[in-house]
Amino acid sequence: MHDVLIIGAGIGGIAAAARLAKLGYRVRVLEKTGAPGGRVALMKRDGYTFDMGATLFLMPQTYAQTYADLGERMEDHLDLRRVEPNYRVHFHDDTYLDITPKLVEMREQMEAEETLMPTDYRDVWNLARGTAFGLSHNVLQVGYLRPQNRHRRYGNLYFVGSSTHPGTGVPIVLISAALVEQRIRKEHPAPARAVAVTH
Fold this sequence. Notes:
This protein has five helices and six strands, in the order E-H-E-E-E-H-E-E-H-H-H. The chain is of the alpha+beta class. The strands form three sheets. A two-stranded parallel sheet has the order 1-2. It has a two-stranded antiparallel ribbon with strand order 3-4. A two-stranded antiparallel sheet has the order 5-6. Helix 1 packs parallel to helix 5 (170-187) and helix 2 packs parallel to helix 5. The longest helix is centred in the last third of the chain and has 18 residues, at 170-187.
């Protein structure tokens, strides 16, 4: 039986671990924080619980496919409800923007356009070396040029998550997990599982 060590219990690590375990791999997950979730974790402080993300539920078919690949139905585990507005963005000048799927309402709220430079990201948000949750999106971090999901030198070292191929966002990270699972299955096939049949 092949052993797989997953470092990081973010959504990509958990999804890859679950997929590989279902295929018969012996999987161990290590996480440096006290709880799983990564970008979609919960933070508890001073009696309050904060949902750290994801902000929007995009590409529901990707979530549904992940559940289906694990032999489950998403509807049996998630009680999804539309919330209006989806969320409210507060700005430093006490203005805000309500995010809604109603495009007319969104358009009515938008009065200005602001151009930001890389120095603004560095000076205002301290993001000189990337985004808050992964690598920056410069020309060398887009599409195929993004870091691939397998290490070039160490052939049995794979990467999953928002800083690797195909990119950022929870649905894309779920796709990343599926790509890594498929690649590991192809390059390091799991032994067939023994099935006990009783009469």
